[in-house]
């Protein structure tokens, strides 16, 4: 890639001023139109993931022949639908049981309301009781319905985005004109897609392993709704840094309520912590390598920023979004210094 020349100090100041204005308007738009943009953003990521899976299928060449592109994409989409159906069936089956068990847990927490009566678990149980008392069940149900609607929109967008992949290249070149900027846009988009493909592929693989290993720890201990906690572990693992902590904390809180004694809780905490430590700090970095080249501090800052704008979906999308921002800024004379700050080693 050709080196982007640095902008003079005056130009850099003007670019920063204009960039801050554009960023403020952009962030306002992201927040105001989040109900429309969030399903579209997830659909774009699914298209990237499906394209990666389709490319992998085509590279396998079963029976010595390459799989047609349409067949590879259709098979990838079928895998996505089957995964979504498995996810919703597990969660749906568990939610009814969890709703029936909530009064039982509420009674137990009420009995253990006093920290002195519950011994070692008293403060935790009192906090969980207060949290359960403040939980708006109707609001949670409404939110689940809204999320389901967003999921349907996401799945609706995916096939149309797949159909637009190849025509979009010609549209970008035609819209950019004869100065060659269209080719640069396509190049940056291709590099962003390659980085996100690798990130999503590795993250999905490690998240599946983490969910299965966590389930293997929770089920033998007899933890209630182990399947639900395993599915949540898979989803939360996509949130950088704090997702794995939340997954362990939720399952451990369930164990405190269910068992009420330290031995099984400590075993569960040790087992889940070991799974997260090995897969998250050893296996995932080994598979991911340095392909993203993002500063850990900037990952946390972007996680905080995107969570503030889009909530939980923003937390899940924070890393792919930051990768795209870094690659775009690296191509702009006035924004290259921001890309350097976002990177891990200063090389963009």
Total beta-strand segments = 0
Spell the H/E element sequence. Answer: HHHHHHHHHHHHH
Radius of gyration: 23 Å
Which bin fits the share of residues in helices?
over 70%
Global mean pLDDT: 78
Number of domains: 2
Q: What structural category arises from helix and sheet content?
A: mainly alpha
Total of helices: 13
Strand content: under 5%
What general form does the structure show? globular
First-to-last CA distance? 10 Å
- Assembly type of the chains comes to single chain
Describe the structure.
This protein has 13 helices and no strands. The protein has 348 residues and is an all-alpha fold. It has 2 domains: 245 residues, no CATH class; 56 residues, no CATH class. The radius of gyration is 23 Å and the shape is globular. About 2% of the residues have low confidence.
Summarize the structure.
With 348 residues, the chain is mostly helical. It has helices spanning 9-32, 34-60, 69-111, 115-118, 122-134, 137-176, 181-221, 226-236, 242-259, 262-288, 296-310, 312-330, 336-342. The protein starts with 8 loop residues before the first helix and ends in a 6-residue tail after the last helix.
Which characteristics define this entry?
single chain, 348 residues, mainly alpha, 2 domains
Layout of helices and strands, plus pairs?
Layout: H1 9-32, H2 34-60, H3 69-111, H4 115-118, H5 122-134, H6 137-176, H7 181-221, H8 226-236, H9 242-259, H10 262-288, H11 296-310, H12 312-330, H13 336-342
Helix pairs in contact: 2-3, 2-6, 2-7, 2-12, 6-7, 7-8, 7-10, 7-12, 8-9, 9-10, 11-12, 12-13
């Amino acid at each position: 890639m050709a080196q982007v020349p640095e902008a003079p100090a005056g130009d850099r100041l003007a670019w920063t001023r204009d960039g801050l204005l554009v960023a403020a308007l952009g962030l306002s738009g992201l927040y105001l139109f989040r109900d429309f943009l969030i399903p579209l953003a997830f659909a774009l990521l699914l298209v990237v993931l499906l394209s990666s899976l389709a490319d992998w299928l085509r590279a396998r060449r079963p029976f010595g022949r390459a799989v047609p592109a349409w067949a590879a994409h259709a098979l990838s989409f079928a895998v996505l639908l089957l995964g979504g159906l498995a996810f919703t069936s597990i969660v749906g089956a568990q939610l009814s049981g969890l709703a029936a068990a909530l009064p039982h847990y509420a009674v137990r927490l009420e009995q253990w309301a006093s920290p002195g009566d519950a011994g070692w678990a008293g403060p935790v149980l009192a906090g969980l009781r207060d949290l359960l008392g403040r939980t708006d069940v109707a609001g949670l149900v409404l939110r689940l319905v809204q999320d389901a609607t967003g999921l349907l929109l996401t799945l609706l967008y995916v096939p149309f985005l797949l159909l637009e992949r190849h025509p979009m290249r010609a549209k970008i070149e035609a819209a950019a004109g004869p100065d060659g900027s269209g080719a640069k846009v396509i190049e940056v988009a291709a590099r962003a897609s390659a980085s996100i493909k690798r990130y999503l592929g590795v993250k999905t693989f490690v998240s599946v392993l983490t969910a299965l290993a966590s389930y293997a720890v929770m089920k033998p201990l007899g933890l209630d709704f182990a399947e639900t906690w395993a599915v949540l572990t898979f989803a939360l693992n996509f949130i950088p840094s704090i997702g794995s902590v939340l997954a362990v904390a939720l399952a451990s809180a369930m164990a405190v309520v269910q068992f009420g004694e330290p031995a099984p809780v400590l075993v569960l905490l040790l087992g889940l912590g070991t799974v997260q430590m090995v897969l998250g700090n050893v296996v995932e970095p080994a598979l991911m390598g340095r392909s993203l080249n993002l500063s850990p501090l900037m990952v946390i800052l972007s996680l905080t920023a995107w969570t503030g704008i889009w909530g939980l979906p923003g937390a899940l999308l924070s890393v792919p979004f930051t990768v795209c921002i870094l690659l775009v800024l690296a191509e702009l004379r006035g924004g290259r210094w921001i890309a350097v700050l976002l990177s891990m080693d200063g090389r963009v």
